[in-house]
Amino acid sequence: MPGWIEIIIRSTILLLILFLLSKGFGKKKLSQLTVFQYMLMIVIGGIIALSAISSDIPVSYGGLALAVWFIIPVAAEFIALKSKRFRDVTKGKGTVLIQNGKIMDDNLKKERITTDDLLGSLRSNNIFNAADVEFAVIEPNGDVNVLPKKEQQPVTPKMLGTKVSPSKEPQTVIMDGKMLLEPLANASLNPNWLETELEKMNVSIENVFLGQVDSDGQLTVDLFDDQLSVPTPAEKPLLLATLKKCQADLEMFALETENEEAKALYQKNSERLQKGIDKITPYLN
Amino acid sequence: MTVSSQVKGCYASLKNADATLETLAAKTQDQETEKAFREARNTVRTVKQDLEQQVIFLTREEPQYKS
User: Fold this and answer.
1) What ipTM was assigned to the predicted interfaces of this complex?
2) For a Cys staple, A152 with which of A17, A132, B5, B26, CB 3.0–4.6 Å?
3) A176: distance to nearest CA of chain B, Å?
4) Do A98 and A136 contact (CB within 8 A), yes or no?
5) Residue A167's closest CA among A282, A53, A27?
6) A167–B17: do the CB atoms touch at under 8 Å?
7) Do B33 and A216 touch (CB under 8 A)?
């Protein structure tokens, strides 16, 4: 067998093996690997490259080496999955860099991180002042994760004590001008409803690039023709405006009337409506 | 505009809000949201009922504007 044919055959087989091996390592990104795993990949690549071109090494030797370099790490990963202690040894533990707002300089030295490195990783977490950090840890893969002090954390509705309406994932019901039946059924809606909504917006389905329905059954569309403008859903803002107007009207009636009984009635209902508006407002935004 | 017609207008707006709340409650996929809409609808309905009495009363008081 001429050498070049052998190399073609070897390369093709090893290419397939490499593909299968890469599946075996799971879905982790390159940046999530530890240094050891990274070197492991390089070694496996080296073995494959060597056995592909050097015809004086039997293929079986290459395959054997590959098997060892593949099976042991994968087996170790399976054990690590089960045992916390094993995991700590093979994958390493995170090291605390900042605790209670104080920089742990011993740990910095242990991980060989300079002050500039630390400041740099804080900056990539959008923190420019080390005093703003409550807790920071370097993960085994080298990522630095930071918990800012409470007053430096972004405001959430919970902190403000405001209520927000729960929202679920929207369903994509139109893609490239075609109706998607399954997501439509997931939102418990039917094609008739979609046609009616599109008619209300005065657009034809062929012209819709993307259409989504949120959990409240509001349809938003994007058209192929960017010159056209589509109406944004106005049902909820309109409702809120109507309720507010009614409440204001009632208050005005209460002020205008001279009949005491009617005054009391308007007053009472105006207050009642105001309470209702306060409760429903989070759901209408 | 007379008082009577103003109150009637407000009553109509409340009717509109009531109907919108009903459709929203029917459309939503989320139970909590549905509950909130139902509660709001109940409030709107009680206000509406009170106002209905007032509309009748005012029509009696100003019969010349009866429509």
Assistant:
1) 0.87
2) A132
3) 25
4) yes
5) A282
6) no
7) yes
